[in-house]
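Support request, priority: normal
Reporter: lab tech (M.K.)
Component: structure prediction queue

Hi team, I submitted a job for ABC transporter substrate-binding protein from Amycolatopsis rhabdoformis yesterday, and the status page still shows it as pending. I've pasted the exact input below so you can check whether something in the sequence is tripping the parser. The sequence length should be 326 residues. Please let me know if I need to resubmit or if it's stuck on your end.
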Amino acid sequence: MKFKSGALGVALVTVLAGSALTACGGSSDAGADGAITVSYSEEVADELPLWIASEAGYFKEQGLDVKLIKLDSNQGYPALISGQTQLASMGGSQIVAGTAAGGDVKVLAALTPVLPYQIYANVATAQQLRGKKIGYTTKSGSQYIGTLQALKKLGISPTDVNLVPLGSVTNVNNALLAKTIDASATHPPASLKFEDAGLHMVIDMAKEKIPNINVGISSTSEYLKDHPDVVGKFMAGLKKGFDRERSDEAYSTKILGAHLGVTDQRALDATWKYYAGEVLTDPPLATVDQLKSSQESLEGSVNGVDKVDLASLIDSSFVDKAFGGK
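Reply from support: The job had stalled in the queue. We restarted it manually and it finished. Here are the results:
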């Protein structure tokens, strides 16, 4: 299967072509001594349970030496299937697209099970977005899916607006503040800057509870088969990070501030309240509905994506065990 376009497709085709040479030696032995590498794609609050579990020592309590590395969204999936990483925190779009290209990765948990985006614009109403420039990161990112789903919810076709790729969240945010674009999908803490700049929020996607795996924990089927004990311990540590986020605002905002480079306590408090109150669910189960928005958004740009069996991409057994069968 081939991708029609995009950096994600090029990376996947390259890695899949050589995966037979690397997968056996790469992922099958990693983790035997408790040392594993886990990737994440953005310095965003979606990753807070992962950061807390690492920095509060919850993975170490489980006998794991977890190394967190930041990889761009189009690099996380290839690194996972080649065995360079053992688990990855990534969006559902990477999983669905990768499966269409021949990959074999399972979603274990949905850290962000809904679209955590708010559309801010320099117009007052949603209908005034027609004909305007709306910035997004890349088509391989969850922010793009959030943008498309927001337009769908507002009854606006993507062809009614000018979608502008800008590469990164920082570029999108700066462009909106500079008014070189008219709107974008964002979330706290950046959204507070938009409010202060007099921009208008036209829809809050988290309140709409539109299911989507914006960020989820994933691993290859091979690694899950070879190292269920390691993955189980990882999930037990992550559960403690998850609980700490929901219960300890002071610690959570401290970790957030360090990772996001934000010192404004008002912004940090707003971010914590948004994620802990509107976004997180307990337990963080992945569902087929959460993957559907990714599948729909990728149709037309990724060959074979419409034929992907979404249910086959989910393994909830580790969440079921770690979260006490809730």
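The chain has two domains: 7-114+212-322, 118-208. The beta strands are 35-40, 65-70, 87-90, 105-114, 118-121, 133-136, 162-165, 183-186, 200-204, 211-220. Let us know if anything else looks off. Ticket resolved.
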